[in-house]
Design a protein that fits this description.
Layout (H helix, E strand, L loop, with lengths): L1 E7 L6 E5 L1 H10 L6 H7 L2 H7 L3 E5 L6 E6 L13 E13 L3 E6 L1 H4 L3 H14 L3 E3 L3 E14 L2 E13 L21
């Protein structure tokens, strides 16, 4: 399965977050965190714990471009490794847990008022407007993140490709949570 989303924006904050947003909501409640997860994540170690627990994958350095987002569960060659693409980085070793049959790429802004009502409204918005969210089987996934540019309608668009593989358990790789995911665009 390969799912592609185009014209994905960062809401003017240089951050994307990948994860099961409903799992993040239950994780917030079980850790007794406030509804302002943005503040929690920037003033204490809760954000680090969310990453290490496989709840979210934070992606900093996201320039204000429209992006193509690809979720690749096919086992086939990633689009960013094809000859007409421009690969800029390839990073593996990430693990994420899915408990609600969804994986989505969302922006930092939802963390500022992370309530059940806002999360459900965001999920409805994603479904209605076909935003970067896929339905997948629950469990652990190893994730490789590829970044670069892919040819979209005769021009190169900044692209993130998430190569997902279901695993039996969480990976043990060391993760640099401060890593920059910046893509240099030749189009914008």
């Amino acid at each position: 399965m390969i799912c592609k989303f185009t014209e994905v924006l960062n809401d003017l904050i240089d951050y994307f977050i990948l994860g099961d947003i409903l799992l993040l909501e239950s994780w917030k409640q079980s850790n007794h965190l406030s509804d302002n997860l943005a503040m929690e994540f920037t003033t204490n170690e809760s954000g680090d714990h969310a990453v290490l627990d496989g709840i979210v994958l934070p992606m900093a350095g996201i320039e204000n471009y429209p992006y193509t987002i690809i979720f690749n569960l096919s086992g086939d060659t990633p689009e960013l490794l094809r000859s007409d693409s421009h690969l800029q980085f390839r990073r593996g070793g990430y693990s994420l847990k899915v408990e609600n049959n969804i994986l989505m790429l969302f922006t930092w802004r939802i963390l500022e008022q992370f309530t059940n009502e806002r999360v459900n409204a965001l999920l409805n918005h994603y479904r209605q407007y076909k935003k970067p969210m896929i339905e997948i089987e629950n469990g652990w996934y190893s994730i490789e993140v590829l970044g670069g540019e892919t040819l979209q309608d005769s021009y190169y668009e900044p692209t993130f490709e998430f190569v997902l593989q279901k695993t039996e358990r969480k990976g043990t790789a060391e993760i640099d949570i401060n890593l920059d995911f910046k893509i240099e665009s030749t189009t914008y």
